Amino acid sequence: MTQLVWFRNDLRSLDNSALVQAARAGQVRGLFIATPGQWRLHQMAPVKMRLINNAVTQLSGHLAALGIPLDVVALDDFAAIPAFLARYCQEQGISALYANREYLVNELARDQAVAAALPIACHFSDDALLAPPGSVLTGQEQPYRVFTPFKKQLKAKLMAALPEVQPRLKGQSISQAPVPEFSDSAFDGQLADWPQDEEAALLAMRRFVTERVADYKAQRDFPALDITSRLSAALSIGLVSVRQCLWRLLHEHQDAVWDDASGPGTWLNELIWRDFYQHVVWHYPLVVKGRAFQADTDAIAWSYDEAAFKAWCEGRTGFPIVDAAMRQLVQTGWMHNRLRMIVASFLVKDLLIDWRLGEAFFMRHLIDGDFAANNGGWQWAASTGTDAAPYFRIFNPTEQGKRFDPDGRFIRSFLPELQGLDDKYLFEPQRYPGPLDYPKPLVDHKQARQKTLAMFKALKEG
Ligand code: FAD
């Protein structure tokens, strides 16, 4: 009898819990179901869809080397999956289905519907995180609402027992049917710098951990330095597992678990943020339905000023660091973390625009778009979320530019119109006495800040 592995956000043959469990039970067949209609509904960026298509093609080759056939089909949405799987499993003589769990509302409902529709056993594994949702709780068995105690608790778990990396499978190679196209190849060009295959992702991760992580804490906030791992896209579709990252990190830097102040320790904390936000969406599914984590902040009368939002989207706000960052996003499908915080703060706290518009725009463009991390990041910036930045912490976009891009290298690389501008005008081009093909600032930051403070203060005082 054949075991079916249904691949989703785990597009790798190494350290894949579902795959290893299925292989222990017998002969394996793989399946990937593309659902472009559902993905569009979830605002998935076309570049991410393209990445998935290419990654599935690579996965097909890795599975072929292990003797595992992979079928790839395209259905429009999740609703079509249970009936399709029932038919497919019967035709292929499948005795059990294996898959790795996803923790969002629609994905959980999809898996429930599949389990109900199939007359065979369905085994779902926790594979995507350092610790599954529900396993990191307070002393009162409640979910954590802020990051730091969550991190402490998770680290204590890791120190007690590290999650194991799965053994490597062996097999006789076979030939594989070609993987069909289910996304727009126009985006191949944007993918050149990203790992699209598990081997490339592993190599990138190892290089980062051996060559760059030591400087991570000191340099990670400077977008021109390109010091961060750039593994977010690979992690978001499971080209590399977070366990592989953890083991390699600890192999090279044993102190990462207890030394928060080191580069490796700081990077581990970022991986734990990834877990944290996945736990949040699982414990508090309301955030998946467009609601603020802090319910009182849903009373804020956000702005929906279309012209201002358009200027932000197009990188025409008149604040160079904001504009360069937004152009990085639109042109490359990725944005540096410090910049994500700056542009999110600007949209919400300077323009007072609903954070949900920014959240959706990010998803429509990010190659690493991940609902939990994105929603968590936006709600943090908007002071509506779990670990929300206190409402009175409002980034000054001019000062952030001076501090984190001091020689203007990043700004100049995305704003050709400011390339020749003298350093002393670069962060405030409106002060340049001559003509300049660059917009005036969309708002007066000081005034906008006062308005936002007053609005939040009124809300908090009821
Ligand atoms: P590194 O600095 O090398 O970090 C390693 C990994 O840790 C990342 O690849 C990522 O998987 C994880 N990570 C790092 N920071 C965070 C964080 N704050 N929250 C959750 N996970 C984190 N990250 C996404 O993966 N997808 C998103 O859609 C996303 N949207 C964001 C939106 C906003 C407004 C903000 C402020 C942050 C967002 N982040 C998102 C988090 C972070 O910006 C990116 O993970 C990071 O920039 C990716 O670059 P890197 O791989 O070089 O990260």
Write the layout of secondary structure elements.
Elements (H helix, E strand, L loop, with lengths): L1 E6 L9 H9 L1 E8 L1 H6 L4 H20 L4 E5 L6 H12 L1 E7 L4 H13 L3 E5 L21 H14 L37 H15 L3 H4 L12 H6 L4 H11 L10 H21 L22 H9 L5 H13 L4 H14 L4 H11 L5 H11 L15 H8 L4 H6 L8 H4 L18 H16 L2
Parallel strand pairs: 1-2, 1-4, 2-3, 4-5
Q: Can you describe this structure?
A:
The chain has 462 residues and is an alpha/beta fold. It has 3 domains: 2-125, HUPs (Rossmann fold); 129-163 and 198-283, Serine Threonine Protein Phosphatase 5, Tetratricopeptide repeat (Alpha Horseshoe); 295-460, DNA Cyclobutane Dipyrimidine Photolyase, subunit A, domain 3 (Orthogonal Bundle), CATH 1.10.579.10. It contains 20 helices and 5 strands. A 5-stranded parallel sheet has the order 3-2-1-4-5, sandwiched between helices. Helix 5 links the parallel strand 4 (94-100) and strand 5. Helix 11 crosses helix 16 (371-381) and helix 13 (320-332) packs across helix 14. The protein is globular and about 75 Å long. The protein starts with a strand and ends with a helix. The model has no long low-confidence stretch (mean pLDDT 96). The structure holds flavin-adenine dinucleotide. Flavin-adenine dinucleotide (FAD) binds next to helix 9, helix 11, helix 14 and helix 16. It is an enzyme of class 4 (lyase). It comes from Gallaecimonas xiamenensis 3-C-1.
